[in-house]
Amino acid sequence: MKTRLLAAAVASATLAVALPAARAGVTDNLATSPTAMAMGNAVTADPPGIESIHFNPAGLARLTGSQHIDTLFVASIRNPNKFVTAPDIDIGGFKDDPINGTSSGPVRQAIGIPFIGIPKARLPAVAVPGLGFSYNAPGSNWTFGTLVYLSQAMSVDRTKDPNDPARFDGRLVQLERLNYLSPTAAYKISDTLRVGLSVPIAYSIFAINTDFRAPNKLLGTVGQLQRALCPNGNGTVIDTLTFGLCGGGPEAMVDPFKRAANIDFDLHASFDPTVNVGILWEPKKWFALGLVYQGGSTTTFRGQYMVHSDPMLRGFVRGLNSSLLGPIVGAVTGMPSSIPEYQSGNMTAKIPFPWRVQAGIKLMATDYVQLNADVSYADWNKWNQLTFEFDQSVKLLEMARLFGYANSRQATFKMGFRSVVNFSFGTQINLTRKLSLRAGYEPRKSSIPGNQMSLLAPLPDTKLKSLGLRYKFDSGAEVNLTGSYIKGSYDIPARSDCNLNCDNFFNLIYNPYAATSVSGSLIVRYFGASYTRPF
To answer: Which of 18, 212, 331, 499 would you call most buried, defined as having the most Cβ atoms within 10 angstroms of its Cβ?
Structure first.
């Protein structure tokens, strides 16, 4: 019977992996549980103690007495990139992009602190602690608990090098979901069947700081006209009596490859509850099935923005409006009468957190070898696009009206994420009654199509590999240690991705690497440890 079940599980997993539509979210479950890490996150049918609160709250009903867990994660993320412009690049007459042949530099990490924000310190790696409790009264079928844990995270900081070529698509990208309270109740229906419900309450952060440039053909054409009419950058009488293309002086000479502005968004949601519902069926010691539903939410994030406009566009608009005919052109095209050096205010955004469903199987091939396999689906399609609302018209965005962007009180990023299916596998070998070794493997197909990727979300197909161990003490306490490694690569040809490198006339928001091939990789290294003990 064991052999038949094992063969069926392997055959089902092999067939499922072959599905061409399979996708997975790379940011899920990266630093949630050392035990789950070691098993490739394939633990729905064998949920790990108090950490069952996230993976399958029904597993909490397997605990007796009072339990306490302390966890610590240390993680580093690296994202090297190389930029090569196409031989036929022509952005309105500009053909020499200074980033050609360059590579992005060092990457650092940050960690957001609930109700405080993101500290200024940037480190080669970050440490994330966690803790949890559970309580089961003697003879009761009910078990209660709570857990503090990080369910979603992405942190890339490129501010160490002010000239990093990747700065035009995210100098700082911080995505974080920290569940600071997760009240949970689990019930033991019988010796083989358990159910559970948890309500994780999260503090969420979404922060972006990026340099902005617009290698657009119209801007390039304007820059070439300026060079022809006033090669030294200074205006003339004829220019003043016409359109004022050169009235802003040398610093207002338009170059589509120059930085035009720096944009900073800092958003958070302090109270973001969701629901986890799980069921665990263990009819035999060697066989178990698990199922969990992790609810999503559509959260309203609130925060601040700051736009710092460089002299180039500020001077260009000033020169245009100081001429005779320039204000007429500006009024017709909807351009602003002026652009302030700094513009700041409040902003909001509705950023969905996708729901997930995960099912798993546990098989004891022998008394010493355990095999786990899980399949999950996450509704990342909710991230098809993200829209940010501002409390006033942003003057820099008013310049985009010429390209069909009518509303300068909002900015929309077309993310293009797809709903995802993911598969994961884990093995545990019980060497002795106290010591167990674990290994996990999780091939994560990206939820982002190849023609929608950007350096704001550099999430290609990756493979997660983990090794870990568990040691049980005579007192009932146990230690879990795990090390994991994720790597994925991408190569995006010039003009193939209109979130990154298209060069059509209307590709203004946002293609900072127009007609440029971008190749790179995402590498994540992390270590996790936990200590669980009765108290």
So the answer is: 499
